[in-house]
Amino acid sequence: MKLTRRQTLLSGATLPFAATLPASLRADGHATAAPAPVHSDFNLGDFRVTTLLAGTRPVEGPNGIFGLNVDEDTFNSVSAENFIPTDVAQFYFTPTVVNTGNEVILFDTGLNAAGTTAALAAAGYAAEDITHVVITHMHGDHIGGLTGDDGNATFANAAYVTGQAEFDHWAGAENDGFEAKVRPLAEQMTFIGDGAAVASGVTSMAAFGHTPGHMVYMLESGGEQLVLAADMTNHYVWSLAYPDWEVRFDMDKAAAAATRRTVLGMLAADKIPMVGYHMPFPGLGYIATRDDGFRYVPHSYQLL
To answer: Total domain count for the chain?
Structure first.
């Protein structure tokens, strides 16, 4: 039987979480494949940074999500130039751990507690090791892991940090996810704005548009910098390369486009790497300018 591209993607949707052993020999003498990695580590000065693949899934009909303000021919042409299909996209969900030596900070919590804690365990962390949980914004795929199926807090030893503007918006939105995941922890949260220090070398940056209080974070250690970009841009071609393309998930599309141009322009000019929550795993790369837009350059070994 010949598999179509969609069947191949769909069949591999849960591979990062398959309960498989490292490469070894089966009884018939053939080698078994090692499981796909669910964490990636690198150094930033004195910080140890770990990206976590808390989930991945194929999503059909990407032209209904990205490039809402461009015609189908343009969307198809750009996709073909970048060797990506137009009928399905692979989505990635990538929380990040920053170990400063004094704090172990988790940025966002994934779709659910199970996926995030499994990736944490693979990286050598237990949920109780997390000292701070920072929520960049309150879409469901960023707050889902705050509590488990039992309703209890996943990161029982952690302090919680999030943006005041973001919290205030969702507190009045009558959103089920917020009410289930965030509201019960509100009294344990510290609310911040632009330019706040979460820890030494970890600073918030307003990046509104995707949501009313969406923030990204600048990491600085040992003379090195990196931006945790969250959902400032959420596809390496259909959003990052073409920052003016409208994205269905952006609540204020004009503000989101302006934010992309500002932040991506800074990253490109200063050659600062970024981690994007929805970039292809491990989510780490650089930004270069391209005509009137940008180009994503995946990390290879620069920060190992």
So the answer is: 1
Range of the domain at 75: 37-298
What torsion do the CA atoms of 165, 198, 222, 220 make, to the nearest 10 degrees? 0
In a domain, 121, yes or no: yes
Which amino acid is located at 72 in the chain? E
Residue 22 inside a domain? The answer is no
Non-local (6+) Cβ contacts of 207 within 8 A are 214, 215, 216, 229, 230, 232, 259, 263
CATH of the domain at 278: 3.60.15.10
Q: Which residues make Cβ contacts (< 8 Å) with residue 85, sequence separation at least 6?
A: 5, 79
pLDDT digits (tens, 9 = 90+) for 109-167: 999 999 999 999 999 999 999 999 999 999 999 999 999 999 999 999 999 999 999 99
- pTM given for the model: 0.90
Q: Which residue has the tokens 């490039």?
A: 67
